[in-house]
């Protein structure tokens, strides 16, 4: 990991495959700006101790930086009070980092309710009343995923979703324009920010997985050929 972080800090371009859903973020923000409509960002229904929620907060920070530059209205509804507090600080910090703290508004980040379907109903109401041009559904979702994604599709919004829930991904793929699948959600913050530490960690994880796969493949071959590795390595 230290090697890849050093390479990134030195300016070496580390290869990361294209992720269409993340490449479309700029387009999504620009579309809302041109239409003069807000952007809706739903950080999932998981509490702050869910990994997907933490990843969503990282992505929210990068999206908020672009929104600050374009001066586009933002709506971030939250189910949990802790996520609401963290989300507000993330968005505020994003506006400050872009030199536009005066453009941040307290009502950009909202607390709704902890009730699962009460939250879904409230988000649907926001989509139907305020007609956001772009919807982000990124985080941990359950049975309400299709309800919200379908409502957003009916309003004609451009939609980007992302979740690590295998059961909910088919609904997002069906109803959204782009979907981040599985680990793409966790790679998103490094992909969008290009921070050397995040890029180095991402590359180190990829190579670590490759090494593990090679080892597993090797042991599979030994098992298939019925070879005893300990016998082969034994010093006579």
From TrEMBL:
Keyword Membrane found: yes
Pfam families on file: DUF6754 (PF20539)
Domain DUF6754, first and last residues per copy: 2-221
Bilayer-crossing regions: 210-233
Protein name, per record: DUF6754 domain-containing protein
Keywords attached to this entry: Membrane, Transmembrane, Transmembrane helix
Organism this protein belongs to: marine sediment metagenome
């Amino acid at each position: 990991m230290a090697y890849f972080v050093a390479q990134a800090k030195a300016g070496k371009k580390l290869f990361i495959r294209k992720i269409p859903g993340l490449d479309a973020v700029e387009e999504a923000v620009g579309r809302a700006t041109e239409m003069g409509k807000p952007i809706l960002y739903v950080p999932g229904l998981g509490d702050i101790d869910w990994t997907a929620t933490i990843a969503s907060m990282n992505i929210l920070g990068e999206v908020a930086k672009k929104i600050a530059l374009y001066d586009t209205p933002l709506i971030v509804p939250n189910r949990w009070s802790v996520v609401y507090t963290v989300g507000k600080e993330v968005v505020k910090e994003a506006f400050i980092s872009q030199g536009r703290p005066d453009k941040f508004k307290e009502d950009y980040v909202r607390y709704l309710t902890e009730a699962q379907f009460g939250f879904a109903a409230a988000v649907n109401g926001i989509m139907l009343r305020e007609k956001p041009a772009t919807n982000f559904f990124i985080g941990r979702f359950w049975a309400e995923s299709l309800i919200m994604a379908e409502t957003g599709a009916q309003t004609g919004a451009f939609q980007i979703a992302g979740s690590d829930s295998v059961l909910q991904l088919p609904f997002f793929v069906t109803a959204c324009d782009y979907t981040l699948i599985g680990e793409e959600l966790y790679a998103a913050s490094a992909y969008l920010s290009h921070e050397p530490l995040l890029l180095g960690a991402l590359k180190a994880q990829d190579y670590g997985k490759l090494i593990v796969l090679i080892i597993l493949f090797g042991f599979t071959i030994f098992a298939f050929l019925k070879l005893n590795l300990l016998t082969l390595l034994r010093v006579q």
